[in-house]
Amino acid sequence: MTQEKPTEQHLNQDVQLDLYRRQAEVRVFEKRAYDLFLQNLVKGTSHLSLGQEAIAAGFGTAMRGDDYTFATYRGHAHTLVRGVPMAAVMGELLGRESGLMAGKGGSMHLTSVEHGVMGSYAIVGAHLPIAVGAAWSAQYRESGQAAVCFFGDGATNIGAFHEALNLAAVWRLPVVFVCENNLYMEYTPIAAVTAVPRPAADRAAAYGLEPLVVDGNDVEAVYGVARTALERARAGAGPSLVEALTYRHGGHSRADPGKYRPAAEVEEWLARDPVTGYRERLLGRGIPAKILDDIDTEVRAAVDAATEAAKSASAPAPERLLSQVWTDGGSSWRN
Ligand SMILES: Cc1ncc(C[n+]2csc(CCOP(=O)(O)OP(=O)(O)O)c2C)c(N)n1
Fold first, then answer.
1. Is the pLDDT of residue 49 over 90?
2. Whose C-alpha lies nearest to ligand 1, atom 21?
3. Which of 109, 231, 255, 330 has its CA 20 to 30 A from that of 43?
4. What is the CA(147)–ligand 1 centre distance, in A?
5. What is the mean pLDDT of residues 311-335?
6. How far apart are CA 201 and CA 258, in angstroms?
7. How far is the centre of ligand 1, averaged over its atoms, from the C-alpha of 71 (Å)?
8. Is the C-beta atom of 204 inside 6 A of ligand 1?
9. How confident is the prediction for the chain on average, in pLDDT?
């Protein structure tokens, strides 16, 4: 088991504040998304990653602007940390014309190619081979880009996980696989269906990879692992498989209160909140509370503005149904 620690130089105050801000943005945004869902304004289903913010924030801060992100249906955080405008993401959640996909995709289908956000995928594990394809393309073009692919612990029991890992390792592709092990799949504890205690890391050796386990609630630890894995990828050293240990505060989706989880377990993880915990750590290092409060205020204002913009945007016109079905922008049948 390895845990990379970022060096002092990599963790200057700007980086620390970036890590703080990115976590705060995801936290405030997702809490607002939940409020809007209760007001019946968020359409379709949605899956929040409250409690898992440190993983997206750590990777988002370490990634290069032209790197690729692949996410699951739980992908708000991974999209926001790449700099996709909040108003566009909020507009999408509310099914508005102003949304990232003009209101056609909803919470589970966020894509912004110009930000390297190559989609969120609702079929468990389906995006791992696609991330491998993007990494292969980067290798072929010698572009220096890396693909970062986020997925849950449940995906490690899908065949595509093993196929993707194998090909990426054999061809030494610039891809970082990030398993967010939040201990549960959909209502099912991962331990009930997996023969090894670390669903990702314990499989790494099968592909000649080092097992990397990181505290997924420690944004600096995640940032350190991300930097190392991305450097390896760009240096031609091949893929990494990171298992980040974490916990989501809520149930699987908006329909699931998560009552099957033991109360003591939930309590224990709530006490290890990555966002408030990081604030405490920065205060302990002497960063003035005013700086952090100002970031919080700015983030709240940004989420307020995104909410208002989304609420006042119009619904997509019905003709939208027949646009952007194909890459040429249209929908006419072709053989
Ligand atoms: C191939 C496939 N099988 C089943 C489902 C139904 N399903 C949706 S989410 C989910 C649980 C996935 O859990 P995990 O990968 O641990 O991610 P988490 O939701 O905990 O982030 C399941 C079984 C699906 N979407 N795709």
1. yes
2. 152
3. 330
4. 21
5. 88
6. 26
7. 12
8. no
9. 95
Percent residues over pLDDT 70 in the chain: 97
Phi, psi at 178, each rounded to 5°: -120, 110
Amino acid at 335: N
pLDDT in tens, 172-225: 999 999 999 999 999 999 999 999 999 999 999 999 999 999 999 999 999 999
Which of 70, 124, 183, 254 to mutate to test ligand 1, by most ligand atoms within 8 A of the CB atom?
Answer: 124
Q: ∠ CA 294-221-137 to the nearest 5 degrees? A: 100
pLDDT at 1: 46
Q: How far does residue 124's CA lie from ligand 1's centre (Å)?
A: 5
Is the pLDDT reported for residue 4 higher than 70?
no
252 within ligand 1 shell (Cβ under 6 A): yes
Q: What is the pTM of this model?
A: 0.96
Q: What are the distances in angstroms from CA 199 to CA 155, 163, 303?
A: 9, 16, 35
pLDDT at 5 over 90: no
DSSP codes, 30-71? HHHHHHHHHTT-S-S-----TT-HHHHHHHHHHS-TT-EEEE
What is the CA(179)–ligand 1 centre distance, in A? 13
Ligand 1 neighbourhood includes 188 CB (under 6 angstroms): no
